[in-house]
Design goal:
Blueprint: E1 11-16, H1 24-31, E2 37-40, E3 49-53, E4 56-60, E5 73-76, H2 84-96, E6 105-108, H3 116-132, H4 144-152, H5 165-184, H6 194-208, E7 212-213, H7 215-224, E8 229-232, H8 258-261, E9 272-278, E10 281-283, E11 292-293, H9 301-308, E12 321-323, E13 325-326, H10 327-337, E14 341-345, E15 355-364, E16 367-369, H11 376-381, E17 383-390, H12 407-420, E18 424-428, E19 436-438
Parallel strand pairs: 1-8, 1-9, 2-5, 2-8, 5-6, 6-7, 9-14, 13-15, 14-18
Antiparallel strand pairs: 3-4, 10-12, 11-12, 15-16, 15-17, 18-19
Helix pairs in contact: 3-4, 3-5
Length: 445
């Protein structure tokens, strides 16, 4: 006799399809109106998600964006590296504006910890790269890369180790000796003492203990109970450690496929992949950027994108590099992630430009290439091939209906959609959660 199958929720994965900073936080916040919980599955506090709700701006780095919705559960999955001091600081900041956080935040016990020596290693390596002339990667200096290195080397201290003081101390002694050797040697950095790190870790352990959880099982159980979930990626596809512009990348897998591995659920539980794409392109840090425009020339397009778009990094405060939409790079991101639909953000930044260019390919060594190459040196040598479209003078800011967009704005979005081979299901026309056009809802269709 067959039993009736249990109810199953519908799950959506939100990923960036460029070099990060695409506006994922706003979209996640908007979608959580239909979700029981939000899951972060990679990265650390090098991510920056800025939300604007009723005109009030809030910046999140480690805590999932769903925290801004009352009653939404927030999960930090095993694929995230966690600086416990930063996490507690972010919790306290959110509590300071009246949010209840601790009762609905679940921290995977398998998350690797970011400790002070990881930060020192990160900074010392960047300084050495710069002084040697090899060129900085442009990390945030938060210790993300060194923490992932310890994870892969199978020597990381993890959240669960905080529950066992003797075990934590033994592993910390070994790890600190290893990293102090590098810091005090060829990196010429600052070595660190054991006692302050250990004593601080034991203090934060008591605060984190109530939030420690088996996140993979909790997420699985919520799904089988028919609850909708949203998996929130950080950074962007072109910063992925495997598929991005290596070595100018982050230290984790930012693509949709990692939502399963980074949270502890099966890939069959990922139903719709929403790619977030700016109507133009930005990048923070070093690395190739074929469609880049100068941003320091007043009156230029690059200056317009930078100033009107308020393009500064949420975490670093650094000015973002800006350029035309690189649809040929976007096409690769569509393939890698298996995108179900796109949300185009910051369309309103293009208002007032007489014409708009879209990168539709590259010229490399006299050859035409139709999709972003895999080698960073090849990308740096590429010259973009553009298609020119007419701009629009009318404002798109705050529009919530497709039919009210200027005709040329609609033509621009339709051309991008046709070129990349994926549907534009949503359009963001401003920073507030309500400034959104929905053509196909990821949860209700």
């Amino acid at each position: 006799m067959q039993s009736t199958p249990a109810a199953r929720g519908r799950n959506v994965v939100v990923v960036g399809t460029q070099w990060g900073d695409e506006g994922k936080g706003k979209v996640v916040d908007w979608l959580t109106d239909h979700a029981h919980g939000v899951v972060r599955f990679q990265g650390g506090h090098n991510a920056g998600h800025t939300l604007v709700i009723k005109g009030v701006k809030t910046a999140l780095q480690l805590i999932p964006s769903g925290i801004m919705r009352d009653g939404v559960a927030c999960y930090i999955g095993n694929g995230v590296v966690v600086d416990p001091t930063h996490l507690l600081g972010e919790i306290e900041r959110l509590e300071g504006i009246g949010l209840e956080v601790r009762s609905r935040l679940y921290l995977s016990e398998s998350c690797p910890l970011i400790l002070p020596f990881h930060v020192e290693l990160d900074k010392a390596r960047e300084a050495q790269r710069e002084s040697s002339g090899s060129g900085k990667i442009g990390t945030t200096g938060k210790g993300i890369g060194p923490a992932y290195e310890d994870k892969v080397a199978r020597r990381a201290l993890r959240v669960q180790d905080l529950k066992h003081p003797r075990r934590f101390a033994d592993k910390l002694h070994e790890l600190l000796e290893l990293h102090n050797f590098a810091l005090g040697g060829h990196l010429k950095g600052q070595t660190l003492a054991f006692d302050p790190i250990y004593e601080h870790a034991m203090r934060v352990a008591d605060q984190l203990a109530p939030m420690m959880a088996d996140v993979g099982y909790l997420v699985h159980r919520a799904h089988t109970e028919g609850k909708n979930l949203l998996f929130e990626g950080a950074q962007g596809t072109l910063l992925d450690i495997d598929h991005g512009t290596y070595p100018y990348v982050t230290s984790s897998n930012c693509v949709a496929g990692n939502a399963a591995a980074g949270s502890g659920v099966g890939p069959d539980q990922l139903h719709y992949i929403l790619g977030i794409t700016k109507a133009y392109t930005t990048r923070v840090g070093s690395g190739p950027f074929p469609t880049e425009l100068p941003i320091d020339v007043p009156g230029s397009v690059g200056h317009h994108l930078s100033s009107v778009g308020q393009e500064r990094g949420t975490v670093t405060g650094r000015a973002r590099r800006c350029g035309w939409l690189d649809a040929a790079a976007l096409k690769r991101a569509i393939i890698i992630n298996g995108i179900s639909g796109l949300c185009i953000t910051k369309l309103d930044v293009l208002d007032g430009l007489p014409e708009i260019q879209v990168g539709v390919g590259y010229e490399l060594d006299g050859r035409r290439i139709d999709i972003l190459p895999l080698d960073a040196d090849d990308i740096a040598a590429c010259r973009p091939v553009y298609e020119t479209l007419p701009g629009w003078s009318e404002s798109t800011a705050g529009i919530t209906e497709w039919s009210r967009l200027p005709a040329n704005a609609r033509r621009y979005l339709e051309r991008v959609q046709a070129f990349i081979g994926a549907p534009v299901d949503m359009v963001s026309t401003g920073p507030d959660r309500e400034h959104t056009i929905v053509l196909r809802h990821p949860y209700t269709n």
